[in-house]
Design brief:
By secondary structure, the chain is mainly α. The chain is built from ten helices and two strands, in the order H-H-H-E-E-H-H-H-H-H-H-H. The protein is 69% helix and 4% strand. A hairpin with a 3-residue loop joins strand 1 and strand 2.
C-alpha cells in the first residue's frame, strides 16, 4: 500500500484500500490493520482512515464488528454492475444516434447541393482533431458538424429530434474522448462528406455505419469484459 500525497486525501485513501482489496491483499473474512496502522501506511490522519472505511463499508467491501475491528466482506468490484449498466446505456445512445445519422446521411446525399457539401467541409475543418485540450469546445464543434448533416437532410422532424437529444449525443461524443472508446478520426468524418457528395444514399449509409462500427465494437467488448 503506497503513501498518499495528493490533495483529496479521503478519496485517495478509499482508492488505495479498495485497490488492495480487489488485488486480494486480504481475503474475505480477513481483519484489516487497525486504524493507527492504516494511518501510518497511508500517511494520512486517523480521521481520513475512518472516513475511507465508512465509505467502503457502505459500498459492501468491508464490515465493522463492534469491539473486534474491520473485516473484508467482499473482494469483488462492487461498482462493476453499475459500470456495465452504464456502458450498456451508452451503447443504446450510440445505436439511437446511428439510426438518426444514417437516415440523415441518406437524405442529405439525395438532396445535397454544392453549397451543402462546401458547408460540411468547412465545419469539418473547424472541428479539427482533439488534442487533449478544450474538450467542451471540441464537442461543440463536432456536434455542429453532425447537426449540419441532419439539417441538410431537409427533414424538419429529424432536426427537432436531434436537437431534443443533443445532450445525449454530446455525451456520446465525450465518451469517445476517453481511453476506452475510439474516437472516429477526421478520415472517418471526411468519408461521410465524400459519400454524400456522390449523391448515392447507399454509400452515405455505409460511410456512417463504418464510422460507428469501431465504437459499437469497443462498447460490446467492454460490456462483456
Amino acid at each position: 500500500m503506497r503513501a498518499i500525497s495528493r490533495t483529496n486525501l479521503a478519496e485517495e485513501a478509499i482508492e488505495a484500500i479498495r485497490n488492495d482489496i480487489l488485488g486480494k491483499r486480504w481475503a474475505v473474512g480477513d481483519k484489516l490493520p487497525n486504524e493507527a496502522a492504516l494511518s501510518a501506511m497511508l500517511s494520512v490522519s486517523r480521521g481520513t482512515v475512518r472516513e475511507a472505511v465508512r465509505v467502503l463499508v457502505s459500498q459492501g467491501y468491508l464490515e465493522t464488528r463492534q469491539g473486534s475491528g474491520t473485516y473484508v466482506r467482499s473482494t469483488r468490484d462492487a461498482g462493476r454492475p453499475l459500470t456495465m449498466a452504464r456502458r450498456a446505456s451508452l451503447r443504446d445512445q450510440f445505436e439511437a444516434r446511428l439510426a438518426l445519422d444514417v437516415e440523415a446521411a441518406r437524405l442529405t446525399a439525395i438532396r445535397k447541393t454544392p453549397e451543402t457539401v462546401a458547408e460540411l467541409r468547412r465545419l469539418l475543418s473547424e472541428r479539427g482533431t482533439y488534442d487533449g485540450g478544450d474538450k467542451a469546445g471540441f464537442i461543440e464543434r463536432d456536434l455542429a458538424f453532425h447537426k449540419a448533416v441532419i439539417a441538410a437532410s431537409g427533414n424538419r422532424a429529424m432536426v427537432e429530434i436531434y436537437d431534443f437529444f443533443s445532450a445525449s449525443i454530446a455525451e456520446t461524443i465525450a465518451a469517445t474522448l476517453g481511453q476506452d472508446i475510439p474516437e472516429p478520426d477526421m478520415r472517418a468524418h471526411a468519408d461521410i462528406v465524400d459519400a454524400i457528395e456522390t449523391g448515392n444514399p447507399d454509400r452515405a449509409d455505409a460511410a456512417v455505419r463504418r464510422f460507428m462500427a469501431p465504437v459499437l465494437a469497443a462498447l460490446d467488448r467492454m460490456i462483456l469484459s
